[in-house]
């Protein structure tokens, strides 16, 4: 199947996995792998947009990641700060809209400020829609959504009989963002790890043994070719 004939997914979600193992293979600290992995994210954003992908969501830091060793968590937060410091100019240059998914109240105040500045500065950009999941867990997201919806019901802003899937989706972190068509997980692991559980009800899953720092345009193309070959009937009975 040639690249020109591919069915390009509108929204691709990626679980970035394998940074630590990649570093270990090179007898380097795990933090070195995270640093290299962050560079790959920037390149994949460019490749995805040029390929015709309109939405790209990456799982950068989960609610469970706080359980990792303190030095590793501190290094990840430092990487995040560095990204946020340069991302306003980068998003402007690349016409990229950036949104953060997750409970940012659990992050330091300076990171929260930078996140709000970035989202505000990039909200009118019309290129790639780039979502970064930070301090994100899908179960936590759903619980937060239920609490917010319940508050509106008690405040008589929402009638119980009006609650449906579409309304509930408006209370999720991904409000206004289409559901992923394709999930990619690197490093050979084959689980969702509490990522976009509600949103991925009909998503195609692609798993690769490639570690995230080695992921590139060619690997992204393999995943898109896999997606392009799938028959997406959404519950309908195929005639073939």
Give a topology summary.
Blueprint: E1 11-15, H1 19-25, H2 30-51, E2 55-62, H3 70-93, E3 97-101, H4 109-122, E4 129-136, H5 138-154, H6 165-169, E5 182-185, E6 204-207, H7 217-228
Parallel strand pairs: 1-2, 1-5, 2-4, 3-4, 5-6
Helix pairs in contact: 1-2, 2-3, 3-4
Structure notes:
The protein is an alpha/beta fold and 240 residues long. The protein has a single domain, classed as Decaprenyl diphosphate synthase-like (Undecaprenyl pyrophosphate synthetase, 3-Layer(aba) Sandwich), CATH 3.40.1180. It contains 7 helices and 6 strands. A 6-stranded parallel sheet has the order 3-4-2-1-5-6, with helices on both faces. Helix 1 packs across helix 2, helix 2 runs parallel beside helix 3 and helix 3 runs parallel beside helix 4. The longest helix is centred in the middle third of the chain and has 24 residues.
Task: Report the helical percentage.
Answer: 40-55%
Strand portion, in percent? 5-15%
Question: In order across it, which strands form the biggest sheet?
Answer: 3-4-2-1-5-6
Order of secondary-structure elements:
EHHEHEHEHHEEH
| Tally of separate helices | 7
Number of domains: 1
Quaternary structure state of the chains depicted: single chain
Second CATH tier, the architecture: 3-Layer(aba) Sandwich
The count of β-strands is: 6
Query: What best-fitting shape do the alpha-carbon axes yield?
Result: globular
CATH superfamily: Decaprenyl diphosphate synthase-like
| Radius of gyration of CA atoms, rounded to a whole number | 18 Å
What is the CATH topology?
Undecaprenyl pyrophosphate synthetase
The largest sheet is:
6 strands, parallel
Structural category: alpha/beta
Could you list the spans in which at least 5 consecutive residues all have pLDDT below 50?
none
The overall average pLDDT, rounded, is: 93
CATH first level: Alpha Beta
């Amino acid at each position: 199947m040639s690249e020109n004939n591919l069915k390009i997914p509108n929204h691709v979600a990626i679980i970035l996995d394998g940074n630590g193992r990649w570093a270990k293979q090179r007898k380097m600290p795990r933090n070195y792998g995270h640093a290299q992995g962050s560079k790959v994210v920037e390149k994949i954003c460019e490749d995805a947009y040029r390929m015709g992908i309109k939405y790209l969501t990456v799982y950068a830091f989960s609610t469970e990641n706080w359980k990792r060793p303190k030095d590793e968590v501190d290094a990840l937060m430092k990487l995040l700060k560095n990204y946020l410091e340069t991302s306003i100019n980068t998003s402007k240059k690349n016409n990229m809209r950036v949104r953060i998914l997750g409970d940012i109240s659990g992050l330091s105040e300076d990171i929260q400020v930078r996140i709000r500045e970035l989202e505000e500065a990039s909200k009118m950009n019309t290129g790639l829609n780039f979502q970064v999941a930070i301090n994100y867990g899908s179960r936590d997201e759903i619980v937060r959504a239920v609490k917010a919806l319940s508050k509106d019901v008690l405040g008589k802003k929402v009638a119980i009989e009006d609650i449906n899937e579409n309304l509930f989706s408006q209370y999720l972190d991904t409000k206004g963002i289409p559901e992923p068509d394709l999930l990619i997980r690197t490093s050979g692991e084959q689980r969702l790890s509490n990522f976009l559980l509600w949103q991925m009800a009909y998503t195609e899953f692609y798993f690769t043994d490639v570690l995230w720092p080695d992921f590139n345009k060619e690997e992204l193309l393999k995943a898109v070719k896999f997606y392009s070959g799938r028959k997406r009937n959404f519950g309908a009975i195929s005639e073939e």
